Each structure stands twice: as structure tokens, then as C-alpha cells.
């Protein structure tokens, strides 16, 4: 089940936090609870993605994106992700999560997130491809940025983000057509 109570807690917790720009880092803290673990007694890989939601959604509020989505009746969807897992997160361990925008192109926003343990070690890192959607499909990120009241162009894509975009472009779709 989706952790709605935890999500509402994170939104409420940061409701009065200072505004962020799309490239500022939102820092939040999350505990691995017993229902977040897998049979190896560590944070489940699927649940990791859900916990990343708990950092990304409050970040969207702080950037002002949620207000724009409500006003324009737009939606937000994920269009891809690439994650690296490097350290185990065990039950009742707390992680510090960092969330920020990394880049945007003509269709998508790229969001970078990471989790850090108390030893200062990165446990996982993810880049998401996200789209804002309207009644006619994907809303160009440049239009979304204007609606945020920001006069900004995207910086060049970080090399590792560009490599992922390029690799995903040549990946077959639909997959596994036997």
C-alpha cells in the first residue's frame, strides 16, 4: 500500500520551508520501517522508489510546481528511471535524502535524488525522467518553467544524464517482441 500518511507528513513538515529553485536541493529524512523491507531484511528496491516519492513531492511543492499543476489542471508522470544501489538500508535506519532538478529538454525534466546513511555513505542514487501532462499530452518544460515565473534556460545535460538519455533512445520499444 502506498504510504499516504508518510507522504502527508512530509508535505506538512515542509509546508513553511523556504521556496527553492528547480536546481536547489531539498533535504529530507526517512526511516526504513518494517513494511519497507524485503526477505533479506533490507529496504526493498521497489519501496526505495516509493520513498524517493516522499522526497520528490515536497520538493515539487517548495519549487512551486504543485501550485502550477493545480492552476493549469496539469498532471505529473514518470517516464523513466535509472537507479544505482550501493549500501543496504536496514529496518529502523534513517536516511537523509537529497532531491533536485538536474536538467530539462524539450519534453522531459530530469530529477536527481540520493539517499545517505548516518556514516555519510550514499546508499542509492537515481535519475528520473518526468513529464508534465495536459489534455493534449506532454507540456513542454519551457512552458512549465515560464508558469513557475522563472526566466531560465536549462543548463547543459550532465554527461552521465546525457549518456543515459542516449542509451535509452536506442533501447527497443516495444521490448521483447519474440
TrEMBL record:
* Family annotation (SUPFAM superfamilies): Thioesterase/thiol ester dehydrase-isomerase
Q: Which Pfam families match?
A: 4HBT_2 (PF13279)
| Alphabetized InterPro entries for the sequence | HotDog_dom_sf, THEM6_lcsJ_thioesterase
The record, for PANTHER family, names: PROTEIN THEM6, PTHR12475
**What is the protein name given in its UniProt record?**
Thioeseterase
Organism name: Roseovarius indicus
